[in-house]
Amino acid sequence: MAKVLVVGGAGYIGSHVVKELMRSGHEVTVFDNLSTGQEINLFQENRFIRGDIRNQEEIAAAMRGQDAVVHLAAKKAVGESMENPMKYSDNNINGSLNILNAMVEAGTKYIVFSSSAAVYGMPEKEEVDEDCPIAPINYYGFTKAEIEKFMGWYDRLKGLKYVALRYFNAVGYDADGDIRGREVNPQNLLPIIMEVAEGKRDKLKIFGSDYPTRDGTCIRDYIHVSDLATAHVLAIEKLMSGMPSQALNLGTGSGTSVKEMLTAAEQALGKKIPAEYAPRRPGDPAVLIASAAKARELLGWEATYGKDERGMVSIIRTML
Ligand code: UD1
């Protein structure tokens, strides 16, 4: 049992991580400023501190007595990060440094950091492993890559041990229905498809139909959020039993195109979902699929949700 501070624990991925940590018997405290996180995502028996990582004193006070940190507090809209990099410097970079400094001060040794496939930019290989060059093409991805480097230095200089989990495309919701908050104004494919299906939006715009893929639309590696959550618990436990610091990809290892995702959603919801082709979105790689072999080997982790179209249908059902 470890005392774990989950920073950003009221958010989409954070709330799922909290659930898995509690299920594994850890003592969890959530730290969140509720800017995008939601109160409805907090489990009652949890301790909750409303605070902001940009405030050094608030995060330092919350850190005292904690064995480990899961850090998921970040701005994550790729487009916005290109228009307003200052916001991303402040929240993602300054906020993360405050967390690392608070850890040193409190003697908290272990951190699991939510990184992203965005650190790879436009990878040359279709199946991306952790040795692919770090070359972000948007400011959001840049902030994640920099924080990974800061953690490397804090390991060398202060003995802090970290796992950077590079998520591919997180999707779905807790299948038991325990997590009820839904993202407000979502920017990602699947929640947008759901909003179109509910009539909140007119139609899905499919960004690009001329990519060199099997149906001309972009391919991504969609990984269920509860599978991501399990990996965080394993990462903490492995770190605490001596695993060295590292970065690990989290994905299923297989890809789904935008069109296939739309078809899967139509199947799951039993209705036609209006869609039209639109121009390519700048900065979108054609194919982005994880090699998750390293996470499998080091954490003994495996995605449980299926990888094909049927798997996507079952993921979409967790969103209903
Ligand atoms: C991006 C980031 C990822 C980050 C995530 C968080 C990159 C390469 N990836 O993922 O690291 O964690 O955002 O927000 O920077 N699409 C449409 N129509 C839409 C929306 C999306 O066709 O209305 C397509 C996109 O072109 C893409 C796929 O759906 O091919 C998935 O898009 P999205 O959900 O936005 O995620 P990524 O851009 O892959």
Summarize the structure.
By secondary structure, the chain is an alpha/beta fold.
Poorly predicted runs of 5 or more residues: none
Average predicted local confidence, pLDDT:
95
Tell me about the largest β-sheet: 7 strands, parallel
User: Roughly how many Å is the radius of gyration?
Assistant: 19 Å
What's the total helix number?
A: 10
- What structural class do the secondary elements suggest? alpha/beta
Give a description of the structure.
45% of the residues are buried. The chain has a 7-stranded parallel β-sheet, with helices on both faces. It starts with a strand and ends with a helix. 38% of the residues lie in helices and 19% in strands. Helix 4 packs parallel to helix 5 (139-158), helix 6 runs parallel beside helix 8 and helix 8 (258-269) crosses helix 10 (309-317). The chain contains 10 helices and 15 strands. It has 320 residues and is an alpha/beta fold. The protein is globular, with a radius of gyration of 19 Å. Strand 1 (3-7), helix 1 (12-23) and strand 2 form a beta-alpha-beta unit. The mean pLDDT is 95.
